[in-house]
Amino acid sequence: MSTITDRNLSSSGQEVALRDPDVRLMLEVREGSAAAFEKLMLHFQGRVLSVLKHAVGNQELARDLTQDVFLRVYRARLNYVPGAKFSTWLFTIVNNVALNALRGKSRRPEVQFGQMDFKPGVDESGFSMEDTIQAGSEMMPTRQIDKMELNEIVKHAIDSLGERQKIATLLHRFEGMSYSEIAETMELTPQAVKSLLCRARLTLKEILLPYVESGK
Fold first, then answer.
1. pLDDT bucket at 107, cuts 50 / 70 / 90
2. Rounded CA gap, 210 and 216, in Å?
3. Are residues 177 and 97 in the same domain?
4. pLDDT at position 109, please?
5. Judging by beta carbons within 10 Å of its beta carbon (0-12, 13-18, 19+), is residue 57 exposed, middle or buried?
6. DSSP-derived secondary structure letter, 113
7. For a tag site, which of 86, 119, 183, 203 has the least CB within 10 Å?
8. Each residue of 11-41: pLDDT tens digit?
9. Among 198, 121, 208, which Cα is nearest to 156's?
10. Calpha distance 38→87 (Å, rounded)
11. What single DSSP character describes residue 33?
């Protein structure tokens, strides 16, 4: 069993490990604990799946990418050194996997991805459809929109974002990450993240505003 004074831990890394139980679990994974890896998967797989599902717009693809994320986590275990919260390290991997998938999708336009598998009310991520709209517009439609129409509106709005804008928005909205945490995850500056989110918000408002103003 590893300890937080174990090999390759700086004093800052020890402080992170002391504060973050997920870091301690990952240290156990590094030392060969299958039980610790299972705990991490159970804790994070729903959150990872939700972000990836909204990023790529396809449930089955998101499931495959989620498996890829945790395979990468496992392969990286021997070189793991805590320097931040475990979730920040994990979502750095999620960011890379999502960007690779989005770029692959753009290179293969003939591949048809399924519709976003939203359900009425609150989905498995804990956010409702209305929350997704609010993430960009912070406004609600003036009339009730049926499920299919709302699916198409949200899908179109999110797909209209650039790759990095989409990932930054999902991390900010669904994971509740701060600008600095997103910056570390995406290897950007906090100011760059702020700019990404600002542009994403403006894009989503432009797309969604007609539905808010006229209820179309």
1. low
2. 7
3. no
4. 43
5. buried
6. P
7. 119
8. 555 666 568 899 999 999 999 999 999 999 9
9. 208
10. 15
11. -
CATH number of the structural domain spanning residue 60: 1.10.1740.10
Is residue 69 within 8 Å of residue 93, measured between CB atoms?
yes
Residues 185 and 110 in one domain: no
Q: What is the DSSP letter of 5?
A: T
Burial class (CB in 10 A: 0-12, 13-18, 19+), 41: middle
Q: Are 57 and 102 in contact (CB under 8 A)?
A: no
Look at the block and give the residue holding tokens 């990468």.
Answer: 72
- Residues 108, 155: one domain? no
Alpha carbons 25 and 77: distance in angstroms, whole number: 11
Determine contact, residues 52/98, Cβ cutoff 8 Å: yes
How many folded domains does the chain comprise?
Answer: 2
Q: What is the 3-state secondary structure (H, E, C) of 116-149?
A: CCCCCCECCCCCEHHHHHHHHHCCCCCCCCCHHH
More confident residue, 173 or 52: 52
Cα separation, 167 vs 112, in Å, equals 21
128, β-bridge pairs: 122
Reply yes or no on whether the pLDDT at 123 is more than 90: no
